[in-house]
């Protein structure tokens, strides 16, 4: 059984993380913006190209499908000795695709460029997490992964509102140019600072053998936990506004403070979990975070029954747990596949599990609402799914 806990360090625990980690996080910040800003730009894009909102929504679908399905294949095709080049090329593709999206003459070309941007984003995040862990001291790898996830969360919480504000003043293309500029700054810094990444000691393998990691029971268990957690957390995120309307009994209430609470909680959770990930065995930490997620989701309908504003606390805890969870999850994947040298592919598959879980959660919640199920049951169902992930994780926690 792989040892998920951090090894005794050769350097003091207070050693600062390499600057490379923070540069990768800047790219992750741009990625977080690109992943979520298109949803806010849809009305502007629909007006610019004289299309329906339903058609404009396919831009989100193209990005997420390419991210979730295309990036694992691209990572699998990447030679073990080309990790540094792969990281830089993925970020360059992401930057160019966002710039080209802003210049797209028609909707079809915009759709194609969003898909290309999705592939670049997915490959960059998978290789970036692996690179951040690889350039950091062993006793600080959890903290390094936390910084990357914090950058992603920051792009969602801070970057998306900023880019939407910019779009309202200068047009929808300004938001995509901002994403491209931030990505270009990260690319310039990484070209300068990113060292040669250690190649896997494992011999070069074919694509078929790389994808055989899906036969690894430990990997499948970790991916299934991520899938269930995404169904509960990201799926429920889709229904914050209807939950608020149910709590306020039809009275007008803005969702903005609650979305901010979720996002700020995500940043705090991503940052705070890093040091703990270097001290506590990853499977045990995953169990603790899943417990917090289940409790937060359980508290949602209880708080909503009293006052919508009481939901701010469980929503913040929910955001913190949902974002923090991926730090120990990625740690486990890197540890399990360290000998085979394909941890970056396992991380890419984990990102696919998150996007798939988000889609399943949103679809399932929408079906329940279509059947006129009470809103409180939706939150309770999300808590039940999080509890199921916790039960699935318990055997790994005991073995660790």
The total beta strand count reads 0
The string of secondary-structure elements, in order, is HHHHHHHHHHHHHHHH
Helical stretch tally: 16
Question: Roughly how many Å apart are the termini?
Answer: 8 Å
Instruction: Give the amount of beta strand, in percent.
Output: under 5%
State the main characteristics.
78% helix; globular; disordered N terminus; 400 residues; mainly alpha
Note down, in words, how this protein is organized.
The chain is mainly alpha-helical and 400 residues long. The protein is built from 16 helices and no strands. The protein has helices at 19-49, 53-56, 58-77, 83-103, 107-135, 141-170, 172-193, 207-210, 217-237, 240-247, 256-277, 282-306, 312-324, 326-336, 343-370, 375-399. Helix 4 packs antiparallel against helix 7, helix 5 (107-135) packs antiparallel against helix 6 and helix 6 packs antiparallel against helix 11. The longest helix has 31 residues, at 19-49. It is globular, with a radius of gyration of 20 Å. Residues 1-13 have low confidence and may be disordered.
